[in-house]
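Input.
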Amino acid sequence: MKKSTKSSTKADTFVDTSGFYALLVQGDTAHLRAKDLLARAAGAGARFVTTAYVLDETATLLKARRLTHLAIALFEKVLPSAACRIEWMDPDRFEQTRRFFLKHSDQDWSLTDCASFCLMRKLGLHDAITTDVHFRHAGFRPLLI
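Output.
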């Protein structure tokens, strides 16, 4: 398993649950846009960043929708990928996420959203492959909206 130690570059893009879902599920309304974004980014040598929480949420969503075979494909593609870096939760990151979550309790943001927002701010990321409007509310640019 990869452990993140590198800092972000300008080309890095965050991938959220809805982004992975759109990439994996051909019937998703954002599927073609997600594939196009991925292809253009890969052609430019861009890297992607996600969290273990997002992978958890994506696999759970796929299983709940009876698409477990796509969860298997997700892990087979993402875990060994040099183009997609996974950021893992440690006690300090969890505490930062917990504080952010509680500070913004007036928002409809999940704990996973808050972990993503904290990480994106830390790494200086602005773009997210997501259909989740919460990213816009938090000051980021959702690329699939």
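Residues 131 and 144 are 5 Å apart (CA to CA).
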